[in-house]
Design a protein that fits this description.
- It is a single chain.
- With 525 residues, the chain is mainly α.
- The chain has a single domain, classed as Growth Hormone, Chain: A (Up-down Bundle), CATH 1.20.1250.
- The chain has 24 helices and no strands.
- The radius of gyration is 24 Å and the shape is globular.
- The two termini are 17 Å apart.
- The N terminus is likely disordered.
């Protein structure tokens, strides 16, 4: 016997007969079924997935620590072309990252987010092995290119995966773990570099990359224990698996029957069905105004990140501190402290990102970084290579203030925003515009950085100041706000439709008996 419409659709006038899980209503009068924080299981899975983010941080920073190790300098940087080799190592890493973002777009759509994370981890294993075994600069540079490909896949895939398993009310916190673990990778790498600095044997510099290989193996194993993205499963028509994962992840003490999770699945199914026959190509993105706006936002977002100069400073930190007169141990020690500030700031940003508008945080970040960088440039103009201890200490202090400005206000926001503005069927390809921009501008700014500081010194900071001000102003006046919306509802901020708004689902009416009669399957049909 076929089901009637009354049997399969929720009665929008039916009173709530389920448990009194909610204690408040939202602005539309709808009952709030979620707790303030995500479920413990959801949070733990995010932390396991973030091991990939940790891996990028460690892999990217591995060379920076080596630049202060005498064995590495003797092996690769003893010639007159040392600055060119340092720039080449940075350039090939970012070029690999740019390629990796596009590899991720195909692999993630075709085989799933988890498969993509596994593939990235295996590339990092290969990179670590080749780096540790390098016998000449060419071999080492090739290994850094492979590391970049892996990094590009991680940087684009992880925020997508995290955003797709996170509930809307805690998406900023959970996706923010990508940035927090990334910084943790930088910190652990810096501590390892400092410890290995006291090793006096030729293997000294290779230990850093042996550690990278170890962490990559750990990451490859850990990925096997996380679930696939339920949104990807819906796209593949695997509805039961998607529903089971969503219910398991989003069930909380305030919503013990996971009714909100089922409501979100209903919305996801409706949206995916509406978008199923739409093209998935990059040309389709560029040929439609509402998608071009998203591409513009993604590109500009990470153009601002790289134009601030913070990645240049990250990668050359020991050298920059060396230029201020500190020895090798102090270079590495100050580098760890600098990244530790970033870690504290990133964690704080993850905690506030769901409470403060995304665009407001980005604006605060950009303008404060430009001010801090302006002061840093001024201090280096007058006190670099001088005998003024106060001036040199002030220059060090403003490196720390600059990083605090970025990490406390935007370190997590950029990854959250870039992932959440794209519709599900284009998310893996869409984030490529943002992270592709990240790596492309990384090539532009990092490739000449060592030689630029050698030749024009503090004046190189002026490039970062001007570009940051331009990018930030455009962000403040042109970016739509997305905080608090489901991934499907974000579409409305770019002129698209939401096939089934949350306010139309009446979550309290979707109880277990109605789900069993096949309401979600009817939406999918």
């Amino acid at each position: 016997m076929s089901r009637t419409e009354d049997e399969t659709k929720p009665n929008l006038t039916e009173p709530d007969t389920g448990p009194a899980n909610h204690t408040e209503n939202d602005a539309d009068g709808m009952p709030v079924l979620h707790s303030r924080f995500p479920s413990l299981l959801n949070f733990l899975i995010i932390l396991v997935a973030a091991i990939s983010s940790f891996l990028f941080g460690y892999g990217n920073n591995a060379v920076a620590g080596s630049l202060a190790q005498q064995s590495f300098i003797d092996k690769f940087l003893s010639g007159s072309n040392a600055s060119a080799l340092i720039d080449g190592m940075s350039a090939v890493f970012f070029a690999g990252g740019f390629i990796g973002t596009f590899v991720q777009g195909y692999v993630s759509d075709k085989f799933g987010r988890r498969f993509c994370a596994e593939m990235a981890a295996l590339f990092m294993v290969l990179s670590g092995v080749l780096s540790a075994a390098s016998v000449n600069p060419a071999m080492f540079i090739v290994s850094r290119g492979i590391c970049g490909v892996s990094g590009g896949m991680i940087m684009t895939n992880m925020p997508v995966y995290m955003s797709e398993i996170a509930p809307a009310h805690a998406r900023g916190l959970l996706v923010g773990m990508h940035a927090t673990y990334l910084i943790l990778g930088y910190i652990v790498c810096g501590i390892a570099a400092l410890g290995f600095n006291f090793v006096t044997k030729p293997i000294q510099w290779r230990l850093q990359f042996i550690m990278l290989t170890f962490f990559a193996v750990v990451c490859a194993i850990s990925v096997m224990f996380i679930p696939e993205s339920p949104r990807w499963y819906v796209e593949q028509g695997r509805l039961q698996e998607a529903t089971a994962i969503m219910e398991r992840l989003h069930r909380t003490k305030d919503d013990p029957t996971a009714r909100m999770a089922r409501a979100e699945i209903v919305q996801i199914v409706a949206q995916v069905n509406a978008e199923r026959d739409l093209p998935h190509s990059y040309w389709y993105i560029l040929s439609n105004a509402h998608l071009r706006k998203r591409a513009y936002c993604s590109i500009l977002l990470f153009a601002m990140v790289q134009s601030s100069g913070q990645l240049v400073i990250f990668n050359l930190m020991p050298i920059l501190f060396g230029g201020l007169g500190f020895d090798n141990v102090m270079q590495l020690g100050l580098s760890i402290a600098w990244v530790a500030v970033a870690g504290i700031g990133s964690t704080t940003n993850a905690l506030i990102v769901d409470r403060v508008d995304r665009v407001k945080l980005l604006g605060i970040c950009g303008y404060l970084m430009a001010i801090a960088m302006s002061i840093e440039a001024t201090l280096q103009k007058f006190y670099l290579h001088s005998n003024s201890k106060a001036g040199m200490n002030a220059a060090v202090a403003f490196f720390f203030i600059f990083m605090a400005c970025y990490s406390f206000s935007a370190d997590c926001v950029v990854y959250v925003y870039n992932a959440e503005i794209w519709p599900t069927h284009l998310r893996s390809k869409g984030v490529t515009f943002g992270l592709g921009s990240f790596f492309l501008f990384g090539i532009i700014y990092n490739s000449p950085s060592a030689q630029a500081f050698d030749s024009i010194g503090w004046k190189y900071y002026l490039v970062f100041i001007c570009m940051t001000l331009v990018c930030t102003t455009l962000i403040v006046f042109t970016f739509p706000e997305t905080r608090g919306l489901t991934l499907e509802e974000v579409n409305t901020r770019f002129g698209d439709n939401v096939e089934l708004p949350m306010t139309a689902i009446q979550m309290v009416a979707i109880d277990d008996s109605k789900l069993k009669t096949g309401y979600i399957e009817d939406v999918a049909a």
